[in-house]
Structures are given as structure tokens and as C-alpha cells.
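Q: For a teaching handout, I want to show students what a protein-ligand complex looks like in C-alpha cell form. Below are the inputs, and the small molecule is pyridoxal-5'-phosphate. Please produce the holo structure.
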Amino acid sequence: MTEEYKKLLRQVLCYTESYLENISQTSPFPDQNCIDELKRFHESLPITPSDPMEVMELLNQIGGKGTTAQIGGRYFGFVNGGLLPVSHAAQWLTDTWNQNSALYLMSPIASVLEQICEQWLIELLNLDINTAAGLVTGSSNAIICALTAARNHILRKQGYDVVEHGMRGAPPIRIIVNEQAHSSIWSALSILGIGKQEVIAAPVDGRGSICVEKLPMLNENTLLIIQAGNVTGGAFDPIDQLCDQSNLAKTWVHIDGAFGLWAAASRKYKKLVTGLEKADSYSVDCHKTLNAGYDCGIVLCKNRKALMDAMHATGSYIQYSKNRDGMLYTTEMSRRARSVVLWATLKQLGRSGVENLIDALGEKAEYFANGLEKAGFVIINPVSFNQFICKCNSPELTQKVLGNIQNSGVCWCSGGKWDNEPIIRVSVCSHATTFGDIDKSISAFVSALKSSNIQ
Ligand SMILES: *Cc1c(COP(=O)(O)O)cnc(C)c1O
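A: Here is the structure, written as C-alpha cells, with pyridoxal-5'-phosphate included.
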């Protein structure tokens, strides 16, 4: 290792320390000056190499200021998780190792830890003992993997091999989806050759949760896609009842549990996902509720063979081993060694650490919502997990207030629509959020409301 290389990494450690030291005073979204400065990146492709130290300096100085303070305590946008110290550190080490986790032969450590993570996830989430896990970029990809396994399995039961013959001549599949499904479900279906017009919407109640009594007919050629956690309203579908009906009809059930599946690891919240072990496949993110950092999604499939058959890749140069070859469970071959980061996170937290993390997010979401309600905001649904939506007395006011919150420099929330009206979404998704952060954020909401009333 050269002195320059060492110096470079030490310099980056300094940058990291200073970023972390300042995070609690940093605006959750960069101000206009910082965004204007990003123009400095616009140049034509350099003709010749430059000093890596200078590259990192530019990145730190200008790039760092163009970040959202997502690892701070007052970023409540979308459902973007925070980053635990152990996960951060494990990412660094993993990056140093630069492992490709496609095959055991490419990285024994990634393979061994992937196997262990699979077992631990089964225990933690109380899944069927044979469940297979594949580590992917995020839920969008996990959903593609799971729905491919489901589609191929349902068609194979009808004597049709879609891998050989394609979708054009395939017998029909009944696809039933929570009418408020996340957009990634629709894109996955379209990638699988299934159009929106072919999908049957399962009607939901006022909170966005499937009404069991209005569930369209199920049969053995049905794929039912439900959710543990509506990305806007936060509601969970009645998993237990939906799975019971599906099991009777031999329907494949997929649960999109990007952030909500983690409820299974908490004694307080697991009632939200009662019966989840009866489903066939799941998609979940470790970068959301678990705070393990990007990118770390998981596809889980009870029928291991169905997932492996669907993802199967061959090539004369591919050398499978008796050990776990991670690529067999995903659409991806070359992959960073996500298992290392996931293992380190679960090893450090243990069962009770995961539970405390989840419970704290939920408790703080409730505290936040109560504070806002007292301050005159309308909380639209009861808070069931880590996120909620709220509004003001008129749609125009809600829009204005959201704009003022986003410009407050104190906290940051994203918007959305509920019942065709604008809303403010609050997702408490970082371990770094303290009650003090929430008090400051509630004050920022109140100031935003006051100044919007004047505007
Ligand atoms: C975030 C999310 C997704 C998509 O996950 P990515 O990791 O962003 O690909 C899907 N479904 C729900 C409910 C989500 O919250």
C-alpha cells in the first residue's frame, strides 16, 4: 500500500468525521447556495488523470453540501432509513474487500454470511424454516424476483413452461393487487409482461387496507399481492385472513413489506403482520426500518425451488459449488457483498436490538403525531407503525405549509396525495431521531403553519 493511498483514506476518514460531527446542525435539505454550487461539477470529461486527493476534496467540499442529511435526526422524507454505526463500518470494510458475491468461489465470506443471514431472518421474522432469501438492491428488485417465481410457478402448475415458451401463448393468471399498491409492483408486473388492464384491483378501506369481504374471487391460478405497510398511509393489509383464504384456494400470496415486514421482529408490533408465515413470498428492505444503509433489499420465498428455477442462469464459465452461490436467488450476478453488512447489523443488534430500534421508531412516530394534533394539524389515519400522514384545514394551506417545512432548514418531509388531496407524509425512519429532534420539528411545523396563514 502506498503512502498516497493511506493518506487518501485517512483524508476521507477526516471528511467523514467532520460530516458526522456537524450533522445535527446541518439543514436536512441543502439550501439554494449549496445547490447552486453543484454547478461546479458540470465540466467536460477530463482528458487526463488528476490527483485523487483533489478529486476527494472537491467531492467533500461541494458534494457533501449537496447531500440531504438523511443520517441526521430530522429527515422524515419518503421512507429513507438512517444508518447505524456498525452498518456504516461494515460497508467500509466490505468496500475495501471489494467482493463479488455472485458465487461461493468469488467470495467464501460473502457466501457463508449470506447463508447465516438467511437463517437469522427466518428466526427473526418467524418465517417458514425452508424460506430462501436473495440479497438484492432493494424492494423493487426483490418484487421482480418474487413475482417472477410466482408467475412461473402458477404457469407451470398449468403445464406451461414460460421460460421456454414466453408469455404470448401463456394461459391466463389472475392477478389481484391492493388498489393502492406501491408503484414498484406495477413496474414489476409490466416487466413480467403483465399489463395494468389484466390486473384486478382489491378494494381498500379508508385507511388503504384491503377489505376482506370485498376481495375478488381467488383460485389456484391467482397471484395475490398485498402489503405490510402502505407507503403513504402506513396501513397494513389483514394478512392473516387474506392468507387463510389464499391457502384454501391454493393462491400464491406475495407481501410487499419494504418497511413494514420488520414489525414481525417486535413483540409490540407483530400483531400488524399476524399470519405472515402463511404467505408464499416477501420483499423487504434493510436500508429502511433496519437502518443498514443502501443498498440492501431481500427477496424471501417459501418455495426455494420456485425462486431458484425462476432466477436460474447458466454459462460454461459459471462454476457452481456445493456451497451457497448467492446469484441463484436473484436476477443479479455480480453483486456487492450485502450479506457482510446485513450480518454485521444483525450480529451487533441481536434480537432485542432490532426490536428496540423498531419500537423506538414507532413510539417517536406516535409522539410526533400527538404533538402535531395538539398544534392543530389533522392526523389522517391512526398511527400504526413508523409513519403517518397529516394535513391542514384546506388543500391550499397544506401545500403551502409543506413548502415552508421543506424550506425550514429544521426538518424535511415529503408530500403526497390521499383521497385526491395534498398531504404531508412523516416517516420516522432513523435510529438517530431523538425526542428533542421531534420537538424541534413540531415547532418547525407550527412556524410553517403560522407563516402560511399570513402569506
Ligand atoms: C420503498 C418501497 C418500495 C420500493 O423499494 P426500493 O427499495 O426503493 O426499491 C416498495 N414498496 C414499498 C411499500 C416501499 O415502501
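A: Two things your students might notice: DSSP finds 13 helices and eleven strands in the chain. The mean pLDDT is 96.
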